[in-house]
Please model this.
Amino acid sequence: MDRFPRVLGLIQAGGKGSRMDVLTRERAKPGLAFAGSYKLIDFPLSSFANSGIPDVWVSVSYLASTLDPYIAQGRPWDLDRTRGGYRRVVPEEGGSPSESGFAAGNADNLVQLGQEIENFDAHVIVVMSADHIFNLDLRPVIRDHLARDAECTIITAEVSKSEARHNGVVEVGEDGRVTGFEYKPSTPVTTTVATEIFLYEPTVLLGELHRLRGLLAPDDEDGSSGLGDFGDHLIPALVKRGKTFAVPLGGYWKDVGRPAVYFQAHRDLLRGKVDVFDQRGFPILTRWPELPPAVVRPGGVADDAMLSGGVVVRGTVRRSVLGPGVIIQKGAVVEDSVIGRDVVVQAGARVHTAIVDDSCRIGRDAQVGEPPVASRVRDKDIALLGLGSTVSASAVVPAGARLEPGTTA
Model:
């Protein structure tokens, strides 16, 4: 083996992201903003770049072209190279599984990339999802994976029991070996979950994918491998082989693939619980907007708020995160909300418990959302405004409402 192992990084940028509703109607989910100026795709790209992994593929399964201008061939992460570096690979998701080149889950996506993975000839392949908030130095994890002669290493995190039901639940023995795995169980036996960061021994991975495909879709009539997502068949099969290990992530981790969890992650950010930006020498890299610093004008109030570059506050902002270029006019009130880039909230408007996508306009004296009954916010409590939508003057968008991109209420 070479002095340094040959590592392939693969970011699976997901399918349609339908759980995020209007927010992903016209964009790939990894293009959603987080903490104002960042995007979800920044987190896996930064972990690979900071860990010194030069070969990173991004497999986009929905609206791939919406990410291209932002990623810019990997330039912000120093991945725009003559040899290796960033590469977009696209088995896209379409209308039916039978369409050639279309992926039907993240394990099926690996099947479709199998020949290219084999040709790359890596010692380790590291696979990540692109809708999670985390910061991870992969170097010690890769060393441990190789030292243990592991076939699979699962990066894990601890979550609440209610959240565990939405994830792959992992049982771990004293030596770190994974002894059990259950995908999205109704009654989780532990609160240790897979973060959807996996390290694989490539030969074993490709062999299991081939074997499972033969069992699940021997005729291959519809073009699908039958593997679906990683937790359906692939990880359980690898766990049974006895050489799958778990490594706890440490630090903050959250899967933000649902509105309520995305909203809660921003609450965590304002409460100082998100440590991903605090790791010295391991920054989250992004394409910073070329805008002046935020400003709070006389009479404006920004209390417990995060303001991105170019923000101008003349009204009141409380417990909210504002993206670049947002304007809050005099007399407007924004509370407990996540506001996207270039949004204008006009005088007298009130926004509460809402996620407002980029380039929306909220008219004078309009009302968007309302305070939830309980402290724990659910999807149905959050008003969602799609990209470029408009709320007319004095209009009311109730709690839990969805406004489609480009439409007017």
